[in-house]
Amino acid sequence: MHIALFQPDIPQNTGTILRLCACLGAAAHIIEPAGFPISDRHFRRAGMDYLDHVTITRHDSWSKFEQWRNEAGSRLVLFTTKGAGSYLDFRYQSDDVLLFGRESAGVTDEVASVADARLVIPIRPGLRSLNVAMAAAMALGEALRQTGAAAAGEMPCEER
Question: Residues 63-89: what's their mean pLDDT?
Fold first, then answer.
Protein backbone atom coordinates (compact mmCIF):
# COMPACT_ATOMS: atom_id res chain seq x y z
CA MET A 1 0.00 0.00 0.00
CA HIS A 2 1.19 3.50 -0.84
CA ILE A 3 0.23 6.97 0.36
CA ALA A 4 1.03 9.86 -1.98
CA LEU A 5 0.88 13.52 -1.00
CA PHE A 6 0.34 15.98 -3.83
CA GLN A 7 2.33 19.17 -3.19
CA PRO A 8 1.75 19.20 0.59
CA ASP A 9 1.56 22.62 2.27
CA ILE A 10 1.91 21.90 5.98
CA PRO A 11 5.06 20.22 7.30
CA GLN A 12 3.41 18.97 10.49
CA ASN A 13 0.73 17.10 8.51
CA THR A 14 3.32 15.56 6.21
CA GLY A 15 5.46 14.45 9.16
CA THR A 16 2.41 12.92 10.85
CA ILE A 17 1.45 11.02 7.68
CA LEU A 18 5.00 9.72 7.27
CA ARG A 19 4.88 8.50 10.86
CA LEU A 20 1.58 6.77 10.04
CA CYS A 21 3.24 5.09 7.04
CA ALA A 22 6.14 3.92 9.20
CA CYS A 23 3.84 2.44 11.82
CA LEU A 24 1.50 0.70 9.38
CA GLY A 25 4.02 -0.36 6.76
CA ALA A 26 2.91 1.82 3.86
CA ALA A 27 5.32 3.38 1.38
CA ALA A 28 5.16 7.18 1.18
CA HIS A 29 5.44 9.42 -1.88
CA ILE A 30 5.82 13.19 -1.85
CA ILE A 31 4.93 14.85 -5.15
CA GLU A 32 6.75 18.15 -5.29
CA PRO A 33 6.89 21.03 -5.12
CA ALA A 34 6.06 20.97 -1.42
CA GLY A 35 5.13 24.18 0.37
CA PHE A 36 8.09 23.77 2.75
CA PRO A 37 11.64 22.45 2.69
CA ILE A 38 11.79 18.73 3.49
CA SER A 39 14.36 19.60 6.16
CA ASP A 40 11.82 21.86 7.95
CA ARG A 41 12.03 21.44 11.74
CA HIS A 42 8.22 21.15 12.07
CA PHE A 43 8.27 18.32 9.53
CA ARG A 44 11.06 16.52 11.41
CA ARG A 45 9.38 17.11 14.78
CA ALA A 46 6.02 15.67 13.65
CA GLY A 47 7.74 12.67 12.07
CA MET A 48 10.08 12.24 15.05
CA ASP A 49 12.47 9.31 14.78
CA TYR A 50 9.88 7.37 12.75
CA LEU A 51 11.17 8.92 9.53
CA ASP A 52 14.02 6.40 9.60
CA HIS A 53 11.44 3.58 9.39
CA VAL A 54 9.47 4.63 6.32
CA THR A 55 10.27 4.33 2.65
CA ILE A 56 9.88 7.84 1.22
CA THR A 57 10.06 8.50 -2.50
CA ARG A 58 10.20 12.10 -3.63
CA HIS A 59 8.92 12.86 -7.13
CA ASP A 60 9.99 16.25 -8.42
CA SER A 61 6.83 16.63 -10.52
CA TRP A 62 3.41 15.15 -11.20
CA SER A 63 4.64 13.72 -14.51
CA LYS A 64 7.53 11.90 -12.79
CA PHE A 65 5.12 10.45 -10.24
CA GLU A 66 2.77 9.31 -13.02
CA GLN A 67 5.68 7.69 -14.83
CA TRP A 68 6.56 5.75 -11.66
CA ARG A 69 2.93 4.76 -11.06
CA ASN A 70 2.35 3.58 -14.61
CA GLU A 71 5.51 1.48 -14.48
CA ALA A 72 4.39 -0.01 -11.15
CA GLY A 73 0.89 -0.69 -12.51
CA SER A 74 -0.79 0.73 -9.41
CA ARG A 75 -4.29 2.20 -9.28
CA LEU A 76 -4.61 5.82 -8.20
CA VAL A 77 -7.26 6.32 -5.51
CA LEU A 78 -7.90 10.01 -4.88
CA PHE A 79 -9.45 11.18 -1.62
CA THR A 80 -11.36 14.39 -2.20
CA THR A 81 -14.31 16.33 -0.83
CA LYS A 82 -15.65 16.08 -4.41
CA GLY A 83 -15.50 12.29 -4.39
CA ALA A 84 -18.07 10.15 -6.18
CA GLY A 85 -18.31 7.35 -3.62
CA SER A 86 -17.64 6.59 0.02
CA TYR A 87 -14.22 5.26 0.96
CA LEU A 88 -16.00 2.50 2.89
CA ASP A 89 -17.70 1.10 -0.23
CA PHE A 90 -14.54 0.88 -2.34
CA ARG A 91 -12.66 -2.42 -2.88
CA TYR A 92 -8.97 -1.73 -2.25
CA GLN A 93 -6.03 -3.68 -3.65
CA SER A 94 -2.72 -4.10 -1.83
CA ASP A 95 -0.75 -2.08 -4.41
CA ASP A 96 -3.14 0.91 -4.53
CA VAL A 97 -1.81 4.44 -4.23
CA LEU A 98 -3.97 6.50 -1.87
CA LEU A 99 -3.56 10.12 -2.99
CA PHE A 100 -4.21 13.19 -0.85
CA GLY A 101 -4.12 16.75 -2.17
CA ARG A 102 -2.73 20.00 -0.87
CA GLU A 103 -4.33 21.23 2.31
CA SER A 104 -4.99 24.62 0.71
CA ALA A 105 -6.19 23.58 -2.75
CA GLY A 106 -6.59 19.82 -3.16
CA VAL A 107 -5.37 18.55 -6.54
CA THR A 108 -5.53 20.00 -10.01
CA ASP A 109 -8.19 18.96 -12.53
CA GLU A 110 -5.45 17.16 -14.48
CA VAL A 111 -4.64 15.01 -11.44
CA ALA A 112 -8.29 14.31 -10.62
CA SER A 113 -9.00 13.28 -14.20
CA VAL A 114 -6.49 10.41 -14.17
CA ALA A 115 -7.58 8.95 -10.83
CA ASP A 116 -8.99 5.44 -11.07
CA ALA A 117 -11.35 6.30 -8.22
CA ARG A 118 -12.38 9.52 -6.45
CA LEU A 119 -13.52 8.82 -2.92
CA VAL A 120 -14.93 10.89 -0.10
CA ILE A 121 -14.92 10.36 3.64
CA PRO A 122 -18.46 11.36 4.58
CA ILE A 123 -18.70 14.05 7.25
CA ARG A 124 -21.55 16.05 8.77
CA PRO A 125 -23.29 18.58 6.53
CA GLY A 126 -22.00 22.14 6.74
CA LEU A 127 -18.43 21.16 7.62
CA ARG A 128 -15.67 21.50 5.01
CA SER A 129 -13.23 18.67 5.52
CA LEU A 130 -11.09 16.58 7.84
CA ASN A 131 -7.44 17.29 8.53
CA VAL A 132 -5.44 15.52 5.80
CA ALA A 133 -3.48 13.44 8.32
CA MET A 134 -6.72 12.23 9.92
CA ALA A 135 -8.16 11.42 6.49
CA ALA A 136 -5.02 9.50 5.55
CA ALA A 137 -5.22 7.47 8.76
CA MET A 138 -8.87 6.58 8.16
CA ALA A 139 -8.27 5.68 4.51
CA LEU A 140 -5.14 3.62 5.14
CA GLY A 141 -6.79 1.82 8.05
CA GLU A 142 -9.75 0.78 5.89
CA ALA A 143 -7.54 -0.21 2.95
CA LEU A 144 -5.33 -2.37 5.19
CA ARG A 145 -8.36 -3.91 6.89
CA GLN A 146 -9.83 -4.91 3.56
CA THR A 147 -6.63 -6.25 2.05
CA GLY A 148 -5.33 -7.91 5.19
CA ALA A 149 -2.03 -6.19 4.50
CA ALA A 150 -1.46 -4.91 8.03
CA ALA A 151 1.89 -5.95 9.46
CA ALA A 152 0.80 -9.04 11.39
CA GLY A 153 2.61 -9.99 14.55
CA GLU A 154 4.65 -6.82 14.78
CA MET A 155 4.78 -4.70 17.89
CA PRO A 156 2.30 -1.81 17.68
CA CYS A 157 3.64 1.64 17.04
CA GLU A 158 2.59 3.89 19.89
CA GLU A 159 3.73 6.99 21.73
CA ARG A 160 6.53 6.26 24.17
Answer: 96
